[in-house]
Design goal:
By secondary structure, the protein is α/β, with parallel strands linked by helices. It contains 8 helices and 19 strands. The radius of gyration is 22 Å and the shape is globular.
């Protein structure tokens, strides 16, 4: 059994940032990643026209902050993939691709961990779980009741409109992925039905700056997990936003105006029909309020700091409230030939054979440090702060566990 000081599980942005720091310190380590190439999530779980939702300046992996000529632009998918490929190559990071970690078991007397992989077994003093929060696509069990002739796929497997059969499309979920896919589909002439949730809406730009710049300036991304109203708030969807075509605001009300058929939460499927909760108007109200609250926070910050930023009044769209509330839809009558499940992902840390998650399946840790010596988490949503899982903030959490690991 090969011995190594530190094993990092997952070669995404958190795993690569951890590897970068250990490489700079000359510490022995290895990264295991089940994928064939770098940037697996960006390469294989995003559609063809995908771009970053946050501006390029937020690309802040250690040693490779964005240095291009378009800091306020949004990298397209091919350039995102190239960035991660070049990161691994430039720093000669010890990533072993095509290697799946099957099990992490503690050794006796706290002497590290046994790590079983598809390529052999290892003993390590430290194990860093960098698998993130988005591992298993969420698709409800009642999807099995959908007629077989209707094409079903998760948003992570959607690539472009041409991939779908002719006819209308039902998109389930109005977070970032669901909203962006819906826009692409109806802009190419598809009839789209959209099941709404309560993911917040933000304008793309406000008072002269991109919304992400304001959110960073106000400390929004630095909000710590203890300030959330409840632990379950960690699982809220990301705000509705897009970076496509240079970035622009997106809104359920605008979608309704453009012909998208808005629905409430999906509740089930049976006998060729899909059922929905009668909560469309409530969902719209929550989304609208979230935008107003964020804008009020920014306005307060501008005033308190005497910032010279032009006043702006956002459009007060109301189109969604005029929509008929539908609680049942006959798929054949509506000519729906495809369903895209844009309900997000769930995390799975069951490969670690220790009680390391709470009742919600979230890692029990503080700033990535668990109660078990040498076992760490990075890259998990709301690990410590709102920015824990994004390129803007992942390195802060990584530096924290590196300091603990090497002190």
């Amino acid at each position: 059994m090969e011995k190594i000081e530190t094993i990092i599980i997952g070669g995404g942005q958190a795993g690569l940032a951890t590897s970068y720091h250990l490489k700079q310190l000359g510490r022995e380590h290895i990264v295991f990643d089940a994928a064939e190439n770098p940037a697996h999530a960006w390469r294989n779980d995003r559609w063809d026209s995908f771009t970053f939702v946050t501006p390029n300046w937020t690309i802040q992996l250690p040693g490779a902050h964005y240095a291009g000529n378009d800091p306020d632009g949004f990298l397209p998918k091919p350039e995102i993939i190239a960035y991660f490929e070049q990161y691994v190559e430039k720093f000669d990071l010890p990533v072993r691709f095509n290697t799946t970690v099957l099990e992490v078991t503690p050794l006796e007397k706290g002497n590290g961990y046994q790590v079983k992989t598809s390529g052999g077994e290892y003993r390590a003093k430290n194990v860093v779980m960098a698998t993130g929060s988005f591992q298993k696509p969420k698709i409800p069990a009642y999807s099995a009741n959908i007629p077989a002739e209707i094409r079903q796929l998760h948003s992570g497997h959607y690539r472009n409109p041409g991939q779908l059969p002719d006819g209308a499309v039902l998109v389930v979920g109005s977070g970032q992925s669901g909203m962006q896919i819906t826009e692409e589909l109806y802009e190419c002439g598809r009839t789209v039905y959209l099941c709404t949730g309560t993911a917040a809406r933000v304008p793309r730009r406000y008072r002269g700056k991109d919304i992400v710049t304001w959110l960073a300036d106000t400390g929004f991304f630095d909000q710590t997990v203890d300030k959330l109203p409840s632990p379950k708030a960690r699982f809220a969807g990301n705000p509705q936003a897009t970076g496509k075509n240079g970035g622009h605001s997106i809104s359920l009300h605008q979608y309704a105006r453009d012909g998208v058929k808005l629905l409430g939460h999906i509740t089930g499927a049976q006998d060729g029909k899909v059922m929905f909760a009668p909560d469309l108007k409530e969902n719209l109200a929550k989304v609208d309020k979230a935008e107003k609250d964020i804008i009020a926070m920014i306005d307060k910050y501008i005033e308190a700091n005497g910032i010279n930023a032009p006043q702006e009044i956002l459009p007060d769209l109301q189109d969604g409230y005029a929509v008929e509330v539908i609680t049942e839809l006959d798929l054949k009558a509506a000519d729906i030939k495809a369903i895209i499940w844009a309900m997000g992902y769930t995390a799975d840390y069951s490969l670690v054979k220790l009680p390391i998650t709470d009742e919600d399946g979230f890692p029990i840790q503080k700033c990535g440090i668990t109660q078990y010596p040498g076992l760490y988490f990075v890259g998990t949503n709301w690990l410590n702060k709102r920015k824990s899982t994004i390129l803007l903030g992942v390195n802060e959490d990584v530096e924290h566990i590196i300091a603990e690991m090497t002190r």
